[in-house]
Amino acid sequence: MTTPTRPEAGATSVARAVDVAVSIEHAFDVFTLRMTDWWEPTHHLLADTSEMRVEPWVGGTLTDVNPAGERCTWGHVLVFDRPAAFAFSWDVTPGWELETDPERCSEVHVAFAALDDGRTRVVLEHRHLDRHGAGWEEMRSAVGGPGGWMLGLERLAVVAGGTDPAAGVRRPDTSGARPGPRA
Fold it and tell me: Region labeled Disordered — which residues (predicted)?
């Protein structure tokens, strides 16, 4: 199995990438509108989350819902530019609780780039982790570790129709130029 791709990121950011064996439109739609399908089920603030909802517009929310109808809104859409870019606030504390102060929230930016062979490169950068204050380094380690964003991107590749991560998801070398989200 290859090692995770770690595109350049600053000390207060984490960046990961994966190539997905689907069109750019399909990759974008699965990432944004089918989060429930690829998100690690144990990575929720709301117990028994059964659905993740993304309101597909700037200012929309990212909300977990459980079978009892309880909701937890844990992010706000910053960019929704189908099929090229998606960004949202990460309204989660270093203690994995809901953050209500927007000044203490980080941002997740995702860029989608069509490759010549029909695949799509998905580059995710979790930025401004230091905004969370005390404990942000541990959050950076968690989202940057093997059970963090790389796990999510591997699950995305499977759900979107990519290669099974156990067989080796192709992780691109993006140490040079990489697509960036559009503001």
Answer: 164-183
* 73-100 confidence digits (pLDDT tens): 999 999 999 999 999 999 999 999 999 9
In a domain, 174, yes or no: no
Does residue 176 belong to any structural domain of this protein? no
Per residue in 15-55, pLDDT tens? 999 999 999 999 999 999 999 999 999 999 999 999 999 99
Query: Which one, of 95, 94, 90, 93, lies nearest residue 106 by Cα?
Result: 90
Residues ≥6 apart with Cβ < 8 Å to 58? 77, 78, 79, 80
Does 106 reside within a domain? yes
Number of domains forming the structure of the chain: 1
Q: What percent of the chain has pLDDT over 70?
A: 83
Record the pTM. 0.84
Classified as helix, coil or strand, 130 is helix
The verdict on residue 65 lying in a domain is yes
Three-state DSSP at 101 gives coil
The residue segments making up the domain with residue 158 are 14-94+101-168
Sheet with strand 85-90: strands edge to edge: 14-20, 120-127, 106-114, 85-90, 71-81, 61-65, 51-54
